[in-house]
Sequence to fold (149 residues):
Amino acid sequence: MTVLSSRRGRVYAVACLALLTWSIPQPMAGDIAGFRTPSGNIHCMFIEADAEFPANLRCDIMQIDTPLPKPLSDCEGEWGRSFSISAGDAIGQMICASDAVFNEGNPVLDYGQFWQQGGFTCASEKSGISCFNAKRHGFSLSRSVRKVF
Fold:
């Protein structure tokens, strides 16, 4: 009976993993992978690690319903729309950016789906997106709330 239960558990685990893998969009080929939300308001880009920098995930949000925070004195770009997390970070980062990762050619991450690559996970919901590294640190973005954790 124990062997049967163990096999049944393994079969269930494999079936669940297959279902989960099927519902997760596969990353794009190459060194840079990206996606966008169904609304097109949030775009994200994954950058693989190289000799100088660790793997990194960045997301930008276009439209927000709350005022942008006051920029840092040394920020010459825009403050409050770009967020980043690297593989080893203990908290997500709001970053000063003079560019954007918006790419209408990137695939859409439908609401209720997850994206995973390089130790990062993002979940897309109607209320916004949350992304985190393997240590479960990252950020959540929506029109009304932008926070790091």
